[in-house]
């Protein structure tokens, strides 16, 4: 199996972006705005984000597709919910 030397493959802007996401995630975990439960981030208060993916990234602490990662109690992801409710 091949492996990647990620420090060589990423631009500095990408490294900075990941660091900013991880930093904001940690701040929100520390102040109780995000609770970690069974390896899932649970938002405990209203937090404004610019997109579903930005919200997912901050809650998870890494980049994420919010339309795929946000899932409701019925197991439906946000993208599927959005399609159903905007038809």
UniProtKB/TrEMBL annotation:
Source organism superkingdom: Bacteria
Domain DUF4357, residue spans: 26-76
InterPro entries documented for this protein: DUF4357 (IPR025579)
Any single Pfam family the record assigns to this protein: DUF4357
Name of the protein this chain belongs to: DUF4357 domain-containing protein
Organism of origin: Varibaculum cambriense
Lineage of the organism: Bacteria, Bacillati, Actinomycetota, Actinomycetes, Actinomycetales
